[in-house]
Automatic annotation (TrEMBL):
Lineage: Bacteria, Bacillati, Bacillota, Bacilli, Bacillales
Molecular function, one GO term: endonuclease activity
Identification of the protein by name: Endonuclease Q family protein
Protein's UniProt keywords contain Hydrolase: yes
Keyword entries, A-Z: Endonuclease, Hydrolase, Nuclease
Organism of provenance: Fervidibacillus albus
Coiled coil feature spans: none
Amino acid sequence: MKRFFADLHVHIGRTKTLRPVKITGSKNLTLTNILQTAKDQKGIDIVGVIDCHSPEVIEEIEDLIAQGKLTNAYGNLLFEGKTTLICGSELELYDANCNGPIHVLSYFPHLQSMKAFSRWLLPRLKNIHLSSQRVYATGRELQREVNRLGGLFVPAHVFTPFKSLFGKGVDKQLAQVFDPELIDAIELGLSSDTNMADHLRQLHRYPFLSNSDAHSLSKIGREYQSFLLQKGSFSEIALALKGKDGRKILANYGLDPRLGKYYRTVCNTCLSPIEKNGECFRCGSKKVIKGVSERIRELSDATKFPNRPPYIYQVPLEFIPGIGPKRLSKLLERFRTEMDVIHHASFDQLKEVVPLEIASAITKARNGDLSLEAGGGGRYGRLVDQGTGDR
């Protein structure tokens, strides 16, 4: 058994023919670039690519298999002998049982089941080539099909103000939309953590995932988890989510929720913080974007909390003041991957490569000692501590 780092929510920006998949995704966010970046730069062992229902993405997977870059190892696809590809799909639900669009993630055990799911989706999507499209099926119908194909079903970024289960989709209970028995995990999203989410008693039965929702190569591994597995495979992850046979989630790694884009409630007009009276002190507007922290307070009904893996705050290197492309390149040349820099490089080792204040900021971030200013309304929080650099 060994530790595997996994980011299970990464988008495709473009196919190899440059056809858009995730419209807001970077043009260089191709399947090959994702796998190469995860392997060589990020140090992510398992990548969930959640636009694999797109026919051109499936074609690219098959091309990589034909080229020998993707090999079938223990039932899963292994890129260049190291990084596991998990095939998945993100879809949008909007049916009579929910108040607004809800994003959900589905993962499949192999390419054959992914192709079968793509065929099932074809008459139920307006454009199967695009990511995060509205599926013309109910939540329970979708769950049953994923379950029939041996897949895993996960509501995505469940607290964000837009397109999420609790931010938009339901008043209080997930059972309004889903069969609770056919949910395999809950994805938290950038503006929440384990302690916040466990204030909802209905979530206590599910494991929590922390993923990047990457729309660019640099965002891969922004949030992730570590699993204790025998090998990097879909079947091992399925066991870990159930805590079976010694497999388990070791830890969730993510932003301090205050660094997320939707942590606090802000004015919808000027993005100023809204505190108590619901009116913007700056422009007088009463239209707000409700923050995740406030939404969780509204739904809170738990006083006792389950034992869970630790949620470890970590700050991506691109958030550290003074780390631009040149310094990042130097760090990777010395320490190989971002995971090694974030988790393992000592202060003494870091200061041999970067200025003292940057080495200090990296170690402070690792220990949770940096001061933060909370984000909201689609704008990230930021580190208050300042450094110098080449950004």
